[in-house]
Amino acid sequence: MHLYNRHRRLRKNEAIRSMIRENHLTPNDFILPIFVAEGEGIKEEIASMPGIYRHSLDNTIKEVKEIWDLGIKAVNIYCKVSDNLKDNTGKEAWNPNGLMQTTIKAIKDAVPEMIVMPDVALDPFSIYGHDGIIKNGEIVNDETVDALVKMTLSHAEAGADFVAPSDMMDGRIGAMRMALEENGYHNVGIMSYAAKYASSFYGPFRSALDSAPVDSQDIPSDKKTYQMDYHNSEEALREAIADVEEGADILMVKPGMAYLDIVKLVKDNLQVPVSVYQVSGEYAMIKAAVEKGWLDNDKVILESLTAFKRAGADLISTYFAKEAAKLLNK
Ligand code: PBG
């Protein structure tokens, strides 16, 4: 054969492959989600997420120092609080001395340059496990937004660099942005979970925080009235455009691996930084296959994370951040 184009010429060896490589993964791309528990000296492994722990604050600080040294520059924070602090209003969420607020302060004291991005949503503080306040069986939007604004201000007060609303209420980005401006927090960013789908891939996270929606006749058993329907993609663009107009700085798509088309859609249509969340169920799937000896841990981690970059993500929230940073630093 006399072929003009032989694509394999550019794959001949690692030197040429590395020269023409289009996307690169570095620890700068990562945000590590961390679970914080009450108490001291606690390091509890999450059963469905081998290698991922709920740490008490003292151990959280050790972890944050360690990952900073690996080159990871941002963390998402999620808190697990005891049941007696939960109610329908979620008011523990904006307690100035709550676990979240204390954690934000402690991280900023210990590693001031670490970008701290606390989660803004009521579910870990709700007796019903929903991201909003419930009235007559409905998750009410506008009252929930008022609560999220209080939560946002308490995070800003504690020293958060960004807030990361994961609740999917309408109009919350605008309300949060306005409240931040009015209270002098001009430089606090918003990483909005703009396109967050009602997904079965969140299971392990909900057991980590004990935050699954309760089983009750009067309460919706899923989050489909606020999180998005996974059959849709145009709708993701409407959500994303609205959040940019309302003042979001970074847009997140979630989950990750099954939603790469949405990452690309948002990135191609809006000139803003896009992050993607490789969620708990995705981590669990990979680790389960690795434990069975069916997948190569290191190679699959790097391949799955690079796919996010290829789809257009600027940032990746991933439970693999620490392991991947170690692999990339080798
Ligand atoms: C809740 C929240 C969830 C996740 C992040 N924030 C779960 C949910 O919406 O029920 C999921 C993250 C993961 O699965 O890793 N506001």
TrEMBL record:
It is an enzyme of class 4 (lyase). Coiled coil: none annotated. It comes from the Bacteria. Pathway: Porphyrin-containing compound metabolism; protoporphyrin-IX biosynthesis; coproporphyrinogen-III from 5-aminolevulinate: step 1/4. InterPro entries: ALAD, ALAD_AS, Aldolase_TIM. It catalyses: 2 5-aminolevulinate = porphobilinogen + 2 H2O + H(+). The active site is at K196, K254. GO terms for biological process: protoporphyrinogen IX biosynthetic process. Keywords: Heme biosynthesis, Lyase, Magnesium, Metal-binding, Porphyrin biosynthesis. Its EC number is 4.2.1.24. One of its GO terms (molecular function) is zinc ion binding. Mg(2+) binds at E239. GO terms for cellular component: cytosol. NCBIfam families: PRK09283.1. Homooctamer. Belongs to the ALAD family. This is Delta-aminolevulinic acid dehydratase. It comes from Chishuiella changwenlii.
